[in-house]
Description:
Elements: E1 10-18, E2 23-32, E3 39-40, H1 43-57, E4 64-66, E5 69-71, H2 76-82, E6 90-96, E7 99-104
Antiparallel strand pairs: 1-2, 2-3, 4-5, 6-7
The chain binds zinc ion.
Amino acid sequence: xxxxxxxxxxxxxxxxxxxxxxxxxxxxxxxxxxxxxxxxxxxxxxxxxxxxxxxxxxxxxxxxxxxxxxxxxxxxxxxxxxxxxxxxxxxxxxxxxxxxxxxxx
Length: 105
Ligand SMILES: [Zn+2]
């Protein structure tokens, strides 16, 4: 892999700790250029890591049914991040057939 400095970057692997060490992404590939010291990843390498993060956070979910309504649950990590608690008000905004946004008050 060619570095922008003209150097030749070598493939390396390292463990990356995320979320205060709760998630360890093992052997994450990246390129290191010995000439300029730059570390970089390809978009394919990044998207594989992102898939693991989504899985860890529980971001891919299914709707559930409750008392005649369809409900979506919010994973705890997102609830904490956005200050979402029972009774908090929100608005649903239909942005496209595939995208429904939650606007917090
Ligand atoms: Zn370089």
